[in-house]
User: Fold Ribosomal RNA methyltransferase FtsJ domain-containing protein from Rhizoctonia solani.
Amino acid sequence: MAPSDNTNTEGQPNEGDCVGQITDEERALRLRLSLEGMNGVINFILTHRFLDIGCCPGGYSTLVMNICPNATGMGISLPVPDGGHGLAIPGPLLPRFDLQLADLTMFDLAPDFSDTPPSSSSLQPIPFDRNTFDLVICDAHYRQRQPINDPRPWSGTRLYISQLLLALHAIHPGGRIFLTLWRVESPLTAQILLALDRISTSTHTLKSRSIHEQRPMFYVLAAGIQTNSSEYTTLVYSLKKLWWTMTFGDVGGQGRDATWTEKEMITPWDDVMTEAGLALISRLGTPVWDIQSNGLLRFLQSQGIELDVDQL
Assistant:
């Protein structure tokens, strides 16, 4: 049985910036320390050429370039006037970093689709060649909470799909994708996890104990991406269809939310509900849930609220 197709319960991260009103330099430091902690669990930062999607203020890129002194990178971030963060990468590292200021959802992510409406003239070409990065970090998010009256309430889902599609375009054969996700148990997240597992040699989940401990945000690390597989080709095509629908679908070419059936192009729900599918979700979800539940328990105890854990 499939969950109800409700755009507001999809579990998408529309809560805005997780660290509140701090400077770009302070946020970059927190992000750098956060990634450093996660890399200490699984030593996955090894790269010659990396892409950081949603890069500003640059904490993640700073750590990557510090760990890999010969690496060069590209970052994509929303311009500050449009709601993005400023750049706070230390000056000595900047010659190794190419910053592209753009709305990543408005790259031409499906140039091979011939039925694109006239409004597509505002699209920008993807600013890099296909399969050129061995590490892709995807951490794009809304800086402010998505308005309740947003004319495109599916914007959170569209951002998810856009950055995953961009990552798959960027990744070198055998490379690694480090992707922000939200709520292991949400339908779309589960479908994405199974899809990434199909096209990679290994998948792991990581969760920041310093800035995301009590929140449902986590990361999936998909290693050994098989870009020559039929599963990869099928997933890319499915994501292109979803991006096109959410960008240009419906009357007037203004986009619409993807239906439940359309999202099943990522992974059929029947596949999620198989014994193997549920086992994968359990394996990937358990480390995330453990960290989050322990963080919430410590928070409650700090507020003087005692719980009998054995009764939970």
